[in-house]
């Protein structure tokens, strides 16, 4: 079939516009990095609506030019985004407030909720699968307290992917896979929930209609056509959360299927046939983008961001060489890391902890057990140790899910930026002891979003069938049992070291990498 499907992925650290053929081949991509603004208030991460819309428009124009695609060849467009990020609108449909996913300004409000409404977080978790760690409820209370005039103007709330489609079409709706991460959503009903809102003095009538991912519900407006270069009238199709649509792009669309998406954060996803929640509240549960499925989710925090920090701060030589040779600096770092034996000479990185959703915080970023021998603590060693650490946290998170769900997948599907590293894929297989398969299209979220667009355009019968039909595997990595046994020892040492490092944060000797609001 001729024509192209346009996917817009508004992630934590960047936005991408990607064109795919209906057969699932990536035709072109354009991306822009973005940052989120503080205002001096602790934990604030504002989302710059107007500036970022201009970046999205630039990406759309660039990708169409690079792909040699005219506006009338775009069959449909859809969007995915970081979850938890919310946008508020007034009665005229103007955006009046927006924040990124890990905005943590509402610490006092979380403490208030936990002290004055002691039962509400557990009730909310049982209803929505979410704690207050990234919920919209404390954020709304913060606005009510600190910006009462703005709060009085709030007429609608949406998630970030909804906002992208709203800007494209002028129509506002939400899908379950992203809306559920607001903490104001019923897993079982796959619809908004007002549980506790009236009790807290929060509005109960600010929610847009719920539309399942893959449903065509609007068209590109004349104004958006002028902004983006798209054709007015192009179908706009409901998208969703980046991780859940990433699973669609990986064909992870059946009960028990397991995926790892390696981006700024690393998410571990296990598909569930029913919306069961964790009694210990250590795991979040979300709606899958596929109707009739849910997901147990754990998160390794700032994995990709830590790698980016390490590259930018310590690897200037590799960055210069990469620019001269026309390669990725990470590729050069992996080549060096191959010379380092498993275990990275005992270096233990302290960055993300395993997921503790009910009391989520991390130790101070650091490297432990460094040697004064440069051959055992150089950049190549530290880089490999970071790769190993991401895999160790992933394995520990999957163990948490397994203890709760009793689901143990025979194979792990790995995608996202992390899966581009051949060494990293093998390390993940060795640490988990599971075969790891990597798709041809690494931008699984973008492909899943394109599948949503194609489903709305009647190219695929359903999201699940589109995902199953289009995913193709590039490589499968088989674990080495001896290396797996070695990594089990490394993981045991890391867990003990991390416990001690968390204690330093508890005693205010060091500062946490990140704390959920209220901790």
List the helices and strands and how they pair.
Blueprint: E1 4-10, E2 14-20, E3 26-33, H1 49-67, E4 74-81, E5 86-89, E6 95-99, H2 107-116, H3 120-128, H4 136-146, H5 148-153, E7 156-159, H6 160-169, H7 176-179, E8 185-186, E9 191-192, E10 216-219, H8 222-228, E11 235-241, H9 242-249, E12 258-262, E13 266-272, E14 284-287, E15 294-300, H10 303-314, H11 316-325, H12 329-337, E16 348-350, E17 366-368, H13 379-405, E18 412-415, H14 422-432, E19 436-439, H15 444-456, H16 463-470, E20 473-477, H17 481-506
Parallel strand pairs: 1-4, 4-11, 12-18, 18-19
Antiparallel strand pairs: 1-2, 2-3, 5-6, 5-7, 8-9, 10-11, 12-13, 13-15, 14-15, 16-17, 19-20
Helix pairs in contact: 2-4, 9-15, 10-11, 10-13, 11-12, 12-13, 13-14, 14-17
Q: Which short descriptors sum up this protein?
A:
17 helices, Nucleotidyltransferase, domain 5, seven-stranded mixed sheet, 20 strands, single chain, 519 residues, six-stranded mixed sheet
Would you kindly provide a written description of the structure presented here, covering whatever features stand out?
The chain has helices at 49-67, 107-116, 120-128, 136-146, 148-153, 160-169, 176-179, 222-228, 242-249, 303-314, 316-325, 329-337, 379-405, 422-432, 444-456, 463-470, 481-506, and strands spanning 4-10, 14-20, 26-33, 74-81, 86-89, 95-99, 156-159, 185-186, 191-192, 216-219, 235-241, 258-262, 266-272, 284-287, 294-300, 348-350, 366-368, 412-415, 436-439, 473-477. The protein is of the alpha+beta class and 519 residues long. Strands 14-15-13-12-18-19-20 form a seven-stranded mixed sheet, with helices on both faces. A six-stranded mixed sheet has the order 3-2-1-4-11-10, with helices on both faces. Strand 12 and strand 13 (266-272) form a beta hairpin. Helix 9 crosses helix 15, helix 10 (303-314) runs antiparallel to helix 13 and helix 12 crosses helix 13 (379-405). It is globular. Pfam families: FGGY_C, FGGY_N. It is an enzyme of class 2 (transferase). Its EC number is 2.7.1.-, 2.7.1.189.
